[in-house]
Amino acid sequence: RIIYQNRAGIGSLHSGGKIPLGLQRKGLRILVTGGAGFVGSHLVDRLIARGDSVIVVDNFFTGRKENVMHHFGNPRFELIRHDVVEPLLVEVDQIYHLACPASPVHYKHNPVKTIKTNVVGTLNMLGLAKRVGARFLLTSTSEVYGDPLEHPQKETYWGNVNPIGVRSCYDEGKRTAETLTMDYHRGAGVEVRIARIFNTYGPRMCIDDGRVVSNFVAQALRKEPLTVYGDGKQTRSFQFVSDLVEGLMRLMEGEHVGPFNLGNPGEFTMLELAGVVQETIDPNAQIEFRPNTADDPHKRKPDISKAKELLGWEPKVPLRKGLPMMVQDFRQRIFGDHKEDSS
Ligand code: NAD
Ligand code: UDP
Ligand code: UDP
């Protein structure tokens, strides 16, 4: 049974009462960088529920206090305003390193800052992991595959990335972050884990972050046309956030370094996605075509055989089940808690 909690928490979608082996209460001290963001805040909810003590470090570039304020007052929760580009001294057992803007609109806003966050920020968190002997998990991205020439993408594929394009600050930044992670592992014996995350959606995404799912949902709710970039035939594979959080925790607790693809293999063109949004919110929503952005990958779909085999993980929430949970959250945030949209 899906239990949908207040404050857009994803609740016990996965545990269903039974907590998988390895994810049981441990009382660890865990640092989550970027923990006030979309993915980070859902991860924090699961860690707190498991009984861990969590320190969130966030500079609030794209994160919001509202995403974690339901933990204020809990002695096992601490929120620190801090930029990971600066050194950090804390004592923890595990580090989930998520700090980095994820939406193309946000990461292109200040590309040099995005590179510093990915390179200097990751270096600092690895230095911290080395000093305190913590296990370190990097949230890398499917963008390391660039505009892929292999489809679907396996972890063994090295990618097709433009090093001098407008997306490079993010995809080359994450590629360097992966390199640093492996070099601290090989050179300094730091225990590391690498996740390559594919497009993820769900409650608490920034409403106007420019990503396609948040754009379409907000547009349909506001009775604006859905903006399809290019011809709309490019594809993405959309994962609900609770599936990702489950995968990240299994990866952290498991024995394997990775990299592991974490994504939902269900592949949709942007026009098909617009169709699902119409079905879910408003069958009369119009579609408006806009020019596409530079270096936009034509297709993207994870091969998740490795995560299935070694982590026993696969996504459980298809787009048509996950989207309504996000719509409920967006509706509340756009129109206010009690006001219903007229549709
Ligand atoms: P998000 O923008 O909601 O969260 C990122 C968080 O990091 C925000 O709270 C932001 O304020 C914080 N942050 C950014 N720069 C920082 C800095 N220099 N110091 C401290 N905090 C900083 O994005 P998200 O979707 O939650 O993504 C989380 C992680 O997952 C990112 O590393 C992203 O690259 C990765 N990822 C996400 C997706 C996705 O579809 N959501 C896909 C691939 C990879
Ligand atoms: N660092 C940090 N917190 C720590 C330990 C290190 O932020 O607890 C930073 C440190 O400031 C440095 C980076 O991590 O910039 C890499 O540290 P490391 O010890 O690996 O390298 P070094 O300091 O010798 O260059
Ligand atoms: N896109 C779109 N309309 C929008 C926003 C994005 O058609 O309003 C397209 C975009 O061109 C890309 C895909 O949707 O092909 C996914 O974009 P997003 O920014 O969500 O994530 P990406 O996978 O590119 O990082």
TrEMBL record:
It is a single-pass type II membrane protein. It is an enzyme of class 4 (lyase). Its main location: Golgi. Residues 31-326 form the NAD(P)-binding domain. GO terms for molecular function: NAD+ binding; UDP-glucuronate decarboxylase activity. Its EC number is 4.1.1.35. Keywords: Decarboxylase, Golgi apparatus, Lyase, Membrane, NAD, Transmembrane, Transmembrane helix. GO terms for cellular component: Golgi cisterna membrane. Pathway: Nucleotide-sugar biosynthesis; UDP-alpha-D-xylose biosynthesis; UDP-alpha-D-xylose from UDP-alpha-D-glucuronate: step 1/1. It is found in: Golgi apparatus, Golgi stack membrane. Signal peptide: none annotated. Its cofactor is NAD(+). GO terms for biological process: D-xylose metabolic process; UDP-D-xylose biosynthetic process. The keyword Membrane applies. Catalyzes the NAD-dependent decarboxylation of UDP-glucuronic acid to UDP-xylose. Necessary for the biosynthesis of the core tetrasaccharide in glycosaminoglycan biosynthesis. Belongs to the NAD(P)-dependent epimerase/dehydratase family. UDP-glucuronic acid decarboxylase subfamily. This is UDP-glucuronate decarboxylase. It comes from Nicotiana sylvestris. The lineage of its organism: Eukaryota, Viridiplantae, Streptophyta, Embryophyta, Tracheophyta. The chain holds residues 99 to 441 of 446 of the full protein.
